[in-house]
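ESCALATION

Customer reports they have been waiting on this structure for their group meeting. Please prioritize. Original submission:
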Amino acid sequence: MDRPTDVSSRGPATPGTRARTPSKRARQLLSLVLLLHLVAIVVSPLSVSPTSGLMEGVWSVFQPYLQFLNLNNGYHFFAPEPTSSTIIEYDAERPDGSVVHGQIPDRSTWPRLLYHRYFMLAEQMENEPEELATAWAESYATHIASVQGASKVRLTRVTHLLATMEAVREGTGLEHPESYEREVLGEFEWAP
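Update from on-call: job pushed to the front of the queue and completed.
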């Protein structure tokens, strides 16, 4: 009759032995981490306004974690009350005098995940902290200048407002010019 194999030994696994399982404490810790992660995932969409003060408080606890992993974005675009969307338009002037017009996000951006990343960056420009607004705009302009080979970049934030119920009833299209607001974020220039 074979003797049972001691699975707690630290030696290399041999045929007929089982791999060592994590300790009970390690399993409990992993379970707690997974539970907190799932709670954070659920809290993010539940904290979108309109919501309770309790949910806002819970969100404030998980917000740094959600922000670090970029897990709290996008929910307010869909429900319960979508918000306006933001596009950053730019005019990039090259040293030879030619001007490149573009926008972030650009629908021709591929792969689609990169388009989505640019979309989220543009959305962040709608909610930037006031004290960082100029620095954020300058960082966008610097990136555009490096990509386009420009020495001067002008940025404009374009906010596409949601159609009101009255406008929809009157048959006003979603692309109507009055549904857009434009705000110049600044002109940035670099020595050639």
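Sent to customer with the following note: The helical segments are 24-46, 53-68, 112-124, 133-148, 165-169.
Escalation resolved.
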